[in-house]
Amino acid sequence: MSYIDGFVIAAPTADKEKVLDHARRMDKFFIEFGATRVVECWGDDVPDGKQTDFKRAVQAKDDETVVFSWIEWPDKATRDAAMEKMRNDERMMSEPMPFDGKRMIFGGFEPLVELKK
After folding, report:
1. d(CA 17, CA 24)
2. Is residue 33 part of a domain?
3. Of residues 67, 70, 92, 68, the one with CA closest to residue 15
4. How much is the pTM?
């Protein structure tokens, strides 16, 4: 079964195109290193929660939008090998982020249920 990396960031709303351009450049590396799919989602209906929510998780400010992304890998071994390659790839390290990376939340996930039509 596949392996998933998930990410949530707070991006400056006024810089949507910069964020999109950054994603297009970076996502090519994930595919190059073995990802089967990358999805970038711009927050459209992100409600405030009673105890916590996406906005609070990334400390989004009033002028920021929550971005939710995931990368699908064929398996964890491919993902782990890709992460090692990316840590050592100068192209990855030279790419400035158009958002505050310190507030990014991320993690790797093993799928438990997958339904397809």
Report:
1. 10
2. yes
3. 67
4. 0.92
Instruction: Give me the pLDDT at residue 96, please.
Output: 85
Cα–Cα nearest to 70, from 26, 22, 5, 3? 5
Domain count, the chain: 1
Q: What's the count of helices (H) and strands (E) in the chain, helices before strands?
A: 4, 4
pLDDT tens column, 41-87: 999 999 999 999 999 999 999 999 999 999 999 999 999 999 999 99
CA distances from 72 to 15, 27, 56, 59, 116 (A): 26, 11, 25, 26, 15
Alpha-carbon distance 45 to 57, whole Å? Answer: 16
Residue 93, domain extent: 3-109
